[in-house]
Amino acid sequence: MIRPATPADVPEIISMIRELATYEKAAHEVRVTEEQLRDTLFRDDPAAFAHIAEQDGEVAGFTLWFLTYSTWRGVHGIYMEDLYVRPEHRGGGHGVALMRRLAEICAERGYQRLEWSVLDWNPAIGFYEKLGAVNQDDWYRYRLTDEPLRRLATLRD
């Protein structure tokens, strides 16, 4: 079963974020608090959205996503920040069901893109390619965080 996350799911989502970060060898980078995530997902104008995969009343996985906008297409899209299925639930169709729900939202709302990033060593690449996803290898992804971001914010001519 796939359902929208509720405020009661926040501790479980935080737990899965930590599990995913550990899997991606980046647990030291997780800083999100329950209060931050609750505000992000459940304020009047949410900055992001989450869906939960359940099996027999147990949380099996989640996806967290937000809206993007394409200047070329002139419509919104979805950027999937995280998709995670707990190891004991993998192979049960939860990942496909979560992805299908995001695709359904795109179709219902007229969004024309569903995008995400995946580490180059992650075996999930095969899963995504089986769904028909195409690697955008002609694009490089960049990020500013921490000190470089602060430095740029204070840069003056």
Please give a handful of descriptors for the protein shown.
single chain; 157 residues; alpha+beta; 5-stranded mixed beta sheet
Structure description:
The protein is an alpha+beta fold and 157 residues long. 34% of the residues lie in helices and 24% in strands. The protein has a single domain (2-153), classed as Aminopeptidase (3-Layer(aba) Sandwich). Strands 1-2-3-4-5 form a five-stranded mixed beta sheet, sandwiched between helices. A hairpin with a 4-residue loop joins strand 3 and strand 4. It is globular.
Please outline what is shown here:
The protein is an alpha+beta fold. The protein contains five helices and five strands, in the order βααβββαβαα. α3 links the parallel β4 and β5.
- CATH H-level name... which superfamily? Gcn5-related N-acetyltransferase (GNAT)
| Strands, count | 5
Helicity level, as a percent range?
Answer: 25-40%
Would you list the SSEs in sequence order as H and E? EHHEEEHEHH
Q: What is the 3D shape?
A: globular
In total, how many domains does the architecture comprise?
Answer: 1
Write the layout of secondary structure elements.
Layout (H helix, E strand, L loop, with lengths): L1 E3 L5 H14 L10 H9 L6 E7 L2 E13 L4 E11 L8 H16 L4 E3 L7 H7 L15 H8 L4
Parallel strand pairs: 4-5
Antiparallel strand pairs: 1-2, 2-3, 3-4
